[in-house]
Design a protein that fits this description.
This protein is mostly helical. About 70% of the residues lie in helices and about 0% in strands. The radius of gyration is 36 Å and the shape is globular.
Length: about 375
């Protein structure tokens, strides 16, 4: 096993710290960059000039942080994130102090089963198995998982639109299409998180190899593919909404960052198409954050109860069961045993002969020492 891996598959501190920084950037910097490229820079085509829309700066910062936090919470809850310290306390409820049954054996067993079968647990085991031999493959595996998540992200973009436009108006209440689309999105996100480990287990090797080749050829950073996906998703979503004639101004009242912005900066301006960026954010960021959290969990080392049954049986057989012997080894061992028995038998008989000779010598010696005057 590689010397870089320590503590049952735990990656080095620098690699885990790098993944933590990537996760932080994904939920904060990426949405801010996406919003800035969309709204902050204004092109004046008539005068061939560029201006900065400073009035949108507050909205960009607050909406970027708000969407990032929302997507992180979705990734943690729907992905079934349960670190080992939480499981050993019986789950999130006892850990947060909402139950007095902390360290209850029954709750611990339930928490272990839930963590083992969760999407987070499956992805963490997948990552741990991929970097078992070479921890330097960690970022290649992370990039491969990000690439494999792209189809799910594209699907998550289209689900709300299909739900809002696919259901007849006479079957739903007026002005409730957006809420119905969000319900379809949550269901699609739940399904995507549970399908993603299955897809990743089949293609992770090829995706990691492709990501490594792409990195060596183009030298692109990890953040550029996400920004490109963000821009493409926004373009496709805007084109779809315009083609279908969907009115998006009625959805401004349900935006969370608008409520926060009114409390912090009531005079700040909100773009008319801000709802499009909200839909793009909740489609791209949760899956990206989920894959990074899973890679971080797999690189942090797995508890014995989190490992697969096949791996536990393999470790058990390697540690406790003797290695099978071949027929040649058994034949050689039998010949050695027979030879040793014959040698021991010969040595034993020789020892008895020597003992008899010694006894005779002792008797003769004792007869010489007997005085003759004792017999008369």
């Amino acid at each position: 096993m590689s010397g870089v891996l320590t503590m049952e598959g735990r990656a080095s501190l620098s690699h885990r710290l790098g993944l933590g920084i990537i996760l932080l950037f994904q939920i904060t910097i990426i949405p801010i960059i996406g919003f800035s490229l969309t709204y902050l820079i204004k092109l004046d085509r008539e005068n061939f000039g560029i201006s900065i829309r400073a009035e949108l700066f507050q909205w960009i910062i607050i909406s970027g942080l708000t969407y990032g936090i929302i997507c992180l919470v979705l990734a943690l809850i729907i992905g079934g994130f349960r670190p080992s310290p939480v499981v050993e306390r019986g789950g999130w409820i006892p850990t947060l102090g909402l139950s007095k049954r902390r360290y209850d054996p029954e709750l611990i067993d339930r928490a272990k089963m839930a963590a083992y079968s969760s999407p987070y647990g499956k992805m963490s085991r997948l990552v741990s198995n991929q970097i078992k031999e070479d921890q330097s493959e960690l970022f290649a595996v992370h990039g491969g998982l990000q690439l494999l998540a792209v189809p799910s992200q594209v699907l998550l973009i289209s689900i709300p639109i299909l739900v809002m436009e696919g259901i007849p108006e006479d079957l739903i209440r007026k002005d409730s299409a957006f809420e119905l689309g969000m319900l379809g999105y949550i269901i699609a996100l739940w399904v995507s998180f549970r399908v993603q480990p299955i897809i990743s287990s089949q293609f992770i090797g090829f995706a990691a190899m492709f990501r490594k080749i792409l990195w060596r050829i183009t030298k692109i950073s990890w953040i550029l593919p996400v920004i490109i996906l963000w821009a493409c998703a926004r373009f496709i979503l805007r084109f779809s909404l315009d083609s279908l004639g969907i009115e998006i101004t009625q959805w401004h009242d349900v935006q969370l960052e608008g409520v926060i912005l009114n409390l912090v900066a009531p005079e700040a301006k909100i773009p008319e198409t801000a709802i499009i960026d909200f839909l793009v954010a909740i489609s791209v960021l949760p899956m990206a954050a989920f894959t990074t959290i899973s890679v971080l969990g797999g690189s942090n080392g797995l508890s014995p109860w989190m490992k697969s049954k096949e791996e536990n049986l393999e470790n058990l057989s390697q540690n406790k069961l003797p290695e099978p012997k071949s027929q040649e080894d058994e034949y050689t061992q039998n010949e050695s045993q027979v030879h040793n028995d014959e040698k021991n038998e010969f040595t034993s008989s020789e020892y008895h002969d020597d003992s008899d000779d010694d006894d005779d010598d002792d008797d003769e010696g004792r007869m010489i020492d007997i005085p003759f005057n004792l017999f008369g």
